[in-house]
# Entry
Amino acid sequence: MRDGELWAMADGGRRVEVDRLDPATCAVVERRTAAIDPYDPEDLALGPDGALWVGDIGDNDRARRTVAVIVLPARGEPVLHRLTYPDGPHDAEALLADAQGRVVVVTKEVTGLSGIYRAALDATALEKVGEVRLPDSTTVGGPVGSFGDVLVTGAAVSGDGRVVALRSYTDAWLYPVPVGGDVVEALAGAPVQVPLGGEPQGEAVAFDADGTLVSGSESRGGVAGQIREVAGAAAVARDGTAVAPSTEAEAPPEPAVNASLIGVAALVGVLVLGAVAMAVHGARRRR
# Structure
């Protein structure tokens, strides 16, 4: 999300293309492109100057020599930044831009212990700065059963920089940023759970300007992708304020914020998009 705008991209493909969607109709109303042949773009982040960062960080075979961040400014030419891990290739689907404008990548590890890597945008090497393990979950959903609750498939920072979200196939986990702290410090803390049950392949997460959590799922197995909204989620994680009930007609009771850590609860409004997913898998290529 950017200034109330909803941006989405394809997962995979032979060119970089990011679309702004009309939230009501899902029609494409704006497009940013780059004449760059990516390997496996997996996530979007919003840079401090408002540019969109495409995280070309996917590596299912863990064979890439470098990963990349492609910066798409509102005006001007796209810029390609290549980065190398200090400890060999990793698959990743979660990209963040911290308050200092640095790249933060959270890897997708089958062991459940994900690495946190950071670098200045104009650097060539990532530095490992921490690790994070998502808490256990009983939420049902995603393409790989209960195994999917430990896999990090997306990330976002709230507009005020005070909450970081990591998501799995089944849940979003919201980490408050300590006063004077940063993204990496936040991920060492205790998160608030937002169950996202029933998404066919949830790999996208973002915050609206008012702190609404937005999650996105790809289409899979004939089940249409979805975009869901959890109103007030950032406030729950940030300062424990109660979340107002959704005014959506016939809104289902799940997903809901599991705020056992802070003693409050939330309702959620859901928008189901019949033909458009937040990200759509393309063919993977080895390079």
